[in-house]
Fold this sequence. Notes:
CATH architecture of the largest domain: 2-Layer Sandwich
Number of domains: 4
Helix content: 40-55%
Strand content: 15-25%
Oligomer: single chain
Number of helices: 10
CATH topology of the largest domain: Heat Shock Protein 90
Structural class: alpha+beta
Amino acid sequence: xxxxxEEILSRKKGGSQEAASEDLEKLIHELQVHQIELEMQNDxxxxxxxxxxxxxxxxxxxxxxxxxxxxxxxxxxxxxxxNLTGAxxxxxxxxxxxxxxxxxxxxxxxxxxxxxxQRRIFQNPGRQSxxxxxxxxxxxxxxxxxxxxxxxxxxxxLTGARLTVTDITERKGADEALQASENRLQExxxxxxxxxxxxxxxxADEIHDELLSNLAAVNYSLESNVLxxxxxxxxxxxxxxxxxxxQQKTIKEARRIMNRLHPSILDELGLIPALTSFCRExxxxxxxIHGECKFAAKEEEIPIAVKVVIFRVAQEAMTNSxxxxxAGGSIEVSLxxxxxxxxxxxxxxxxxxxxxxxxxxxxxxxxxxxxxxxxGKFRLESAPGQGTRIQATWRPPLTS
Length: 400
């Protein structure tokens, strides 16, 4: 700037001393203003530098010390970038992980799962995820949740993927413990139901062997005495006839209770005859109910344990429909089998209910529990004014 000022003065040599002095003062003023502007710009640059430094440190802190691992992979699967958390998850120093295949840290059993996840990342838009195990130089494998997005270059072509890796080992352990607890509970529930069936059968056998035998003997003796007294014209015959009718009704009711506990026909003839018999029984007990039973099933394709479950579900479903379906209602029951499916359906056309808001009774819960404990799937459909449909399905293989 001094040189520029000297040039200005040399051009002004011919002027008066006073004019030169004025020009010099103006130049000095401009230089002073410019100096202040430079100082202001320097202050602003310094502030910007500090902000950039703060942002960089904040980014480094957020990136490196995030609670999840961040990885940038090349399209070939090599690790191009990663944060400190990612290095800690793999148990290897960060600089030694660059240009190393990420797949080399996945346990052998989960390699196919990772390849499938990688394929989805590159072929589908949006975030893709999978759970797998990472092996480390020391310690047990880690269960992690891997989430990834494809990464595009400036030309729009895929260049790799960005991954987040979250340690879910603790959660997996809790899930496995919960699953084991649920399996144990289901096993105990299944044993309880089997025990109940055994108890029902024992009671039914005792009713048949003891109670019905004694009632039959009493009935035979009473009939013989009534005939003898009737021939003699004894006046007590009408009263004895009433007692005989009560006795025969008692025998009939005892047989009904026995069959409800454990139908002997189920053991002797099979499920389809037992269901047919129960359909007739429902119509006798509820004369206003019309039952339509369609059985296109192959008896030999149904395991014994599933037969008992189907019969119990049919009992509960048909009895509920008869009791709550109203006068003049109808019940449609079907049982079908195929090579890969056993299906039981009970459909009524009664008032129905909103099963999302109405509290389910013990009967419905018992049906669901029986079906699921035997390896099947239970489905209930109902709506006000549209009746109720109960479906139970099983798919082989099933245990007997």
